[in-house]
Design goal:
about 325 residues; globular
Length: about 325
């Protein structure tokens, strides 16, 4: 399963991997970047790649690395794919690094492509308009391979429709397939109801990824799960529910509205672009409605390709 998008691709990857693990499939998960340990990028059933495999791979490829000078990311992708092949995973969930069309991961022909959303990020590489960025992300759409689009915008919808039609790829827009209601947030869980618009069936969900923005990723995941089941994957209701309620435990995802302590409340979030920060501030607003906070401290770190001034302008003056 190949996943691209400006925001939400990490959460979507981990949610799908958690569900597939719970359904009994040996599931490879390749994501980036890592928070503390390089090995977080490459996991099977939530277990990080063995340290000796990493060392051995780097030593074995030293000569060819010298010759072709791959980037750090390219070498990591090759390592992940070899590891998953050696370990004979049943399915691999592969997150792009950035973009899609020219991303190193884009050498695969997946059984399903997913594009979570389009926003402004990595403009130095992907282009300055949403249309240009969408065209780069749409580069992961493959001939006859179904594709799920999480969120569409008026500027991007036709780009996806056109590309999918050109490649005869069945296309679903998750936000048209599902509607979310009755969202209840606690420090540990996010609860909501999701209605399938086609079948008019409503189900309740509990997510341990409790950022309010996760409801959008949930719709993308449910849409993707439907396609996988049409392809013969067996995912029982209990596997879906347990997977979504235990993503952190099953796949080790951290840093998405991660409430790591209370009194004082301390929240970690990896949001690093305009859309991501807007989501964090929106949830902060909801939190202060129920519990007025005397003072909020922000500690922010950013790399040089981000639009720092734009992000800072969103924060309280």
């Amino acid at each position: 399963i190949h996943i691209a998008g400006t925001n939400g691709k990490g959460s979507t990857s981990h949610m799908l991997a958690a569900i597939l693990q719970e359904a009994g499939y040996k599931t490879g998960l390749y994501t980036s970047p890592h928070l503390k340990d390089f090995r977080e990028r490459i996991k099977i059933n939530g277990e990080m790649i063995a340290e000796n495999f990493v060392v051995d791979f780097v030593q074995r490829t030293a000569e060819i690395t010298q010759k072709i000078q791959p980037s750090f990311f390219e070498l990591t992708v090759a390592m992940a794919f070899e590891y998953f092949a050696n370990e004979k995973v049943d399915i691999a969930v592969i997150e792009t690094g950035l973009g899609g069309r020219l991303d190193s991961t884009n050498i695969i022909t997946p059984i399903l492509s997913i594009i979570t959303n389009i926003g402004y990020d990595h403009m130095n590489i992907l282009g300055n308009t949403l249309e240009e960025i969408a065209a780069e992300k749409a580069g992961i759409i493959k001939q006859n391979v179904p594709v799920v689009i999480g969120e569409w915008l008026p500027q991007t919808k036709n780009i996806f429709l056109h590309k999918a039609k050109e490649l005869n790829a069945p296309l679903l827009f998750a936000m048209d397939e599902y509607e979310v209601s009755n969202i209840v947030y606690t420090e540990k869980l996010l609860c909501c109801d999701v209605r399938s618009t086609a079948e008019d069936i409503t189900e309740s969900f509990q997510l341990d990824l409790n950022g309010l923005y996760q409801t959008k990723n949930l719709c993308t995941v449910l849409c993707s799960e439907g396609i996988l089941m049409q392809q013969g994957f067996v995912i029982k209701n209990a596997a879906e529910k347990n997977g979504l309620q235990n993503v952190k435990k099953l796949t080790g995802l951290h840093g998405r509205w991660d409430v790591v302590r209370e009194n004082p409340t301390l929240i970690l979030d990896v949001a690093h672009n305009e859309d991501g920060i807007k989501q964090v501030l929106s949830q902060l607003g909801k939190l202060t409605e129920t519990r007025p906070l005397a003072k909020i401290h922000f500690v922010t770190g950013m790399v040089k390709d981000k639009e720092v001034s734009k992000v800072l302008s969103l924060l309280p003056s």
